[in-house]
Amino acid sequence: MTMRISRRGTLLGLAGAFSLGRASLAVAAAPTEKRLAVVVLRGALDGLSAVVPYGEAGLSGLRGGLAGVEPGREGGVLELGGFFGLHPALSGLHGMFRAGEAVVVHAVAGSWRNRSHFEAQDWMEFGAERRLESGWLNRVAGALGGVPGKGADLALAVGGLTPVLLRGPAPVGSWLPQSFAPPAGDFYARVARLHAADQVTGPAVASGLRERGFAAGALGEDRRPERFGFPALAGAAGRMLAASDGPRLAALEIGGWDTHANQADRLAGPLRQLDSGLVALREGLGAAWGQTVVLVMTEFGRTVRVNGTRGTDHGTGTVAFVAGGGVAGGRVRGDWPGLGAGQLFEGRDLAPTTDLRSVSKGVLADHLGLPGAVLERVFPGSLGAAPMSGLLRG
Amino acid sequence: MSARAWQAMSRFGLGRRGAEALPDDPMAWLAGQLEGADPALAVPARSTAEGLAAWREDIRRGNDGVSQSRIVFQEDVSGLLDYVAVTDVPFRERLAWFWANHFTVSQRRGAVVPVANAFLREAIRPHVTGKFADMLGAVMKHPAMLFYLDNQDSAGPRSAAAEAAPPARRVGLNENLARECLELHTVTPASGYGQADVVQMALVLTGWGVMLRGEVPGVLFRRPQHEPGEKMVLGHRVPAGPEGLDSVLGFLARHPATLRNLAVKLVRHFVADVPPEPAVAKVEQVLRETDGDLKAAALAVAGLPQAWEPQSKLRGPFDYVVAVVRALDLPAGNRPRLREAVAGLGQAVMNAPLPNGWPDMAHDWAGPEAMMRRVDFAWGVAGRGAGLEPMVVAEQALGPLLGEATRGEMMRAGSRREALALLFAGPEFQRR
Questions:
Q1: Which residues contact A87 (CB under 8 A, 6 or more apart)?
Q2: Which one of A120, A337, B48, B97 is CB 3.0 to 4.6 Å from A351, fit for a cystine?
Q3: What is the rounded CA–CA span in Å between residue A246 and residue A239?
Q4: Would you state the pLDDT for residue A171?
Q5: Domain segments of chain B: what residues?
Q6: How much is the ipTM here?
Q7: Cα–Cα distance between A139 and B401 in angstroms, integer?
C-alpha cells in the first residue's frame, strides 16, 4: 500500500511543526514486528555526569563541581543500586530502570581513539573505521529484507537529511529537514565570541542576541520550549513505529552535548530533552513498547577532570543506554575500570571496557535475531567485539 | 597560492565556488571576464516585449487568476540566481548588479515586475563593458524605468495631448524621472542644478512612454505628449523631438560631476565604505580619458592598490548568500531557494525600497537583527552540507583569509553542521 505524506502527517499529529531544535528523525521499514530506535547523542555526552559513580572515592577530588550530589540529598542523583546514580534530569529513564526496562552500560567506547567529533560520529554510524557505502542501521534494514514495498513508499517523505547511520541502499524515509531547526543557545554565544573583535559586526551580534531575549550572562542557556524539541520528535517516532504498516527502524539524533564550558548548567537542558523524549517515545509506541528496543549512544566521552572553564574536553569512555519493554533492565552493565591513579585512559579519560559495537550487536542478535554472519556484515571487522549477551529477557 | 587569489574571488567576485581553480594571475583573471558577450544572456528569460504582454494580460483579467507578471519574474529570476550560484565570470556579474543598483528599478511599482529582469538583460548587461552614455540611453528608454519613475503619464503642458484634454482630465508634467536622473544617475546635486533644470529635463523626457498594444509592445516616443520647443538643461541646449533625449543624455553622461559620481560609487562598492580620494581620482581620470568606458573603469578599480586591502568591505545580503552557496557548491536540487533566502536577509531581489537603490556601506547592513538572521541562515544552510568536510570547505573558500579564532571554534564544534554554520556565521564570511 502507499503511505502518503498527508496520511503520515495525521499519523504524527505534527503537521507544520518544523521547529524541532537540534533534533532529527529518519525511519526505515522492515518485515518484522520488532522495532528498533537508535538515538544518537551528537557532540559527546559526559557519561560520568549522566551516570555518576558516586561510590567512587576520589570522585569529588577529580570532578569538583561536576561530581554530582549523593542520592537522597537535595538535587541528588537517582539511585541505580548502590554505586551509580542517574543525573536528576533523567527521572523518566530512572522510572524505566526501576521497572526493569532499562539497562545502563558504563565505560563504553567505540573502537576509535581519535577524539574528533566528525570522524568519531562517522565511525559510530558507519559501524567501521572507514567510509562505507551505508550506515550500519541501513544494513540492518537490508538484512531484514526491508527493500521493496513499504520501504519504498516511506522514501516519499520530504527531502530532509538522512543521518549516516541510516544512509544506504535500503529505502529510508527522512523528514523534518534539519535546515528548519533552530540552533541551540550556545551556538549563538560562540558566534558572538567570534565577532567580538569586529568593530562593525561585533556590537551588532551582541545587541542582536540581547534583543532576541538572550540575557547577556546566560548566553548558551537553551530556552526553547519543550514542545519544539526532541520530545515532540521522539513521540512522533513512537507513533510511526507503532503503526501496523509503519516503519520498524528509526534513527533519532539530538545535539547539545559538547559541554566545554559551564557544563553543570548546560548539560541539564539536553538531558531533560533526552529524558522527556524517551518517555514520549514509549508513550507514542503504546503496546508496541513491548516489541521495541531503544539504543542510546554517543561518539565518545569526556575528560574525567574539569577544565578551566568548568566544562570537560573530548575524552574516551562514556555510557550507553538500552531501554524497551523486553529489555532485561534494572542493571548497570559493563566492567567498571575505576577512576583511581593509573586507572584512567591516557591519564585523563574514563578507560573503555566495553566496545560500543558489542552493545549494538547484542541488541541486533537477541532482539532482531540476526545471526553472527549478518552481524559481521553489519559491523565489518568486529569479530573481536562479541555481542553482549542477556540484554533482552527470555 | 597567494592571498590575492582568494581576495580577488571575494572582493571582485562572488566567493570561490567549491574547489574552483584559483587564478595564478588575479588581474588577468578579472580582465578575462570582461571579454566577449555576457554569458548570463544565454540564461533563458523573457524579453521586455514578453514581459509587457504578461502585464497586459494581467490588466485584461483584472484581479482574476494568477498574476502572469509575477510568474515571469519568479521563474526568470530563479533561473538567473541558479546561474549566479555557478557563474565563472563573477566579476562581470558583480558589475552587472552594481550598475543595475545604480539604475534601480523596483518591483514596488507593479508594472516593473514582469520587465525587471529584462531591464537587467537589455539595458544593463550589454553595456557593462561598454560606454556609460550607451547604458544611460538604454536605461532611460526602457519600459521598466519609464514605468518605475512615472514617465509613462508625463506630458508637456503645451503638448498637443494637454491642449486636447478636457479640463476634467488633467494631463501634465511629472518630474520624477528627470529629478532622479539628475540626482542619482548622473550629475548629482554637486553639479549645482536647480529646479528649473529639473523641469527642463522633465520636458525633454515628455513623450517617452510604453506602448502596451500591438504585436510587440515596447517603448514608444509619443509625439502628442511631447513638449514642443527647445529646452535648456544645465546650460546645454536641447532640441525638441525624440533626438532631444539623446542629446541631453550624451551631455549628462560626460559631465565631470557624473564621472565623479560614478567613480565614488565604484570605489565605495569595491574598495571601502569611505572612498580614499586618490582612488576616486584615478577612476575618475580613467572615465574621463576613455569617454566613460566602463570596462576600463572596472579594471582601473581592480588595479587600485587600496582595492586589495583584505576583508575591508561587508558583504550585502545578496553577496553573502551567494558566497555561502558557492562555497558549499551544492547541486542545484539541494540549494536553498536563493530568492527567498536573500529576501529573508533584507535585500529582496529587484525590490529596493527607493530609487537610490540598496545601500553600500557596512552599517547599513550590520544591524543587530540583520546579523542574527545571517546566523540563522548559516545554521539552516549548513544542514545541507551533511556530506562535506567543514575544514575543507573553509580552506577552499577562505584560504589564508580564515582566522585562527574561527578555525578553532570549527575544530571544537560538536558536529559537521555546527562547524559549517560557525564558518558561515563567523566574521570572515561576512566580509569580502
A1: A49, A50, A51, A52, A68, A77, A78, A267, A268, A271
A2: A337
A3: 9
A4: 63
A5: 33-130, 317-430
A6: 0.86
A7: 42
How high is the pLDDT of residue A196? 92
B79 CB burial (10 A radius; 0-12, 13-18, 19+): middle
Q: Which chain B residue's Cα is nearest to A131? A: B387
- Chain B residues inside the 8 Å CB shell of A187: 375, 379, 418, 421-422
- The pairing of strands A23-28 and A51-52 is unpaired
**In terms of CA atoms, which chain B residue is nearest residue A208?**
B368
Cβ count within 10 A of residue B66: 9
Strand residues in B205-342 grouped as ranges (E): 208-211, 218-221, 231-233, 236-238
Determine the average pLDDT of the residues in B66-82: 94
Domain annotation covers residue A125: yes
* DSSP strands (E only) in chain A: 23-28, 35-41, 51-52, 78-79, 85-86, 102-109, 173-175, 249-254, 292-298, 318-323, 331-333, 354-355
Strands B218-221 and A102-109: unpaired
Say how far apart CA B269 and CA B94 lie, in whole Å: 10
> Minimal Cα distance from B390: which residue of A?
A118
Q: Which of A183, A193, A257 sits opposite B379 (nearest CB)?
A: A183
Nearest CA to A357 out of A124, A132, A42 is that of: A124
Q: What is the pLDDT of residue A239?
A: 83
CB pairs under 8 A between A and B: 107
Quote the distance between the C-alpha of residue A349 and its chain's center: 20
* Polymer length of chain A: 394
Please answer yes or no on whether B372 and A209 come within 8 Å at the CB atom: yes
CB atoms within 10 A of CB B347: 19
Q: Shortest CB distance from A204 goes to which of B367, B419, B421? A: B367
Sign of the torsion formed by the C-alpha atoms of A323, A326, A330 and A332: negative
State how far the Cα of A201 lies from the Cα of A322, in Å rounded to an integer: 46
Nearest CA in chain A to B388: A118
pLDDT tens-place string over residues A335-372 = 999 999 899 999 999 999 999 999 999 999 999 999 99
CB contact under 8 A, B366 and A180: no
Regions of chain A short of the pLDDT cut 70: 1-27, 29, 146-162, 171-185, 211-229
Burial A221-257 (b: 16+ CB within 10 A, else e): bbebeeebbbbbbbbbbbbbbbeeebbbbbbbbbbbb
Interface test with B, best of A190, A259, A300, A314 (most B CBs within 10 A): A190
Contact list, B362 vs chain A (CB under 8 Å): 200
Query: Who among B375, B379, B415 is closest to A117 (CB)?
Result: B415
Nearest CA in chain A to B424: A191
Q: Which domain holds residue A335?
A: 5-181+235-378
Question: How many distinct structural domains can be found in chain A?
Answer: 1
Residues of A in contact with B409 (CB under 8 A): 190, 193-194
Could you tell me if A131 lies within 8 Å of chain B, comparing CB atoms? no
Domain membership of residue A124 (yes or no) is: yes
Question: Does A195 sit within 8 Å of B405, measured CB to CB?
Answer: no
Q: What is the DSSP letter of B185?
A: I
